[in-house]
Design brief:
Elements: E1 3-8, H1 10-14, H2 17-31, E2 39-43, E3 50-54, H3 56-61, H4 63-68, E4 72-74, E5 82-87
Antiparallel strand pairs: 1-3, 1-4, 2-3, 2-5
């Protein structure tokens, strides 16, 4: 299992795609009985595109979501560089 990232453009962010992604991800997490290690994080440093990280367990369970948002495999983010969005906040120790 590996980390994935989704990059959202300024236009996508303005159109509410960030919240849409968060809500869909949260539903998958709840539907799977809130497994530990399942989480979504965002890159704290403001950037365009905005970068959302999907933990390895979440990426394994959320393949449809990753495909929908064009997710790409990536290295694990550094804890200091990201903020927690939804899921298990201990997924990135």
């Amino acid at each position: 299992m590996e980390w994935y990232k989704v990059e959202l453009s300024a236009e996508q962010m303005a159109n509410g795609v960030t919240l849409e992604l968060q809500n869909e991800f949260d539903k998958i997490w709840i539907d799977n009985k809130c497994p530990s290690g399942f989480a979504l994080f965002f890159l704290k440093e403001p950037s365009v595109p905005s970068i959302i990280y999907i933990s390895p367990l979440a990426s394994n369970i959320s393949k449809t979501l990753i495909l929908k948002y064009n997710g790409q495999p990536c290295d694990s983010p550094l804890r200091a560089d990201v903020g927690f969005v939804v899921g298990d906040n201990k997924a990135l120790a």
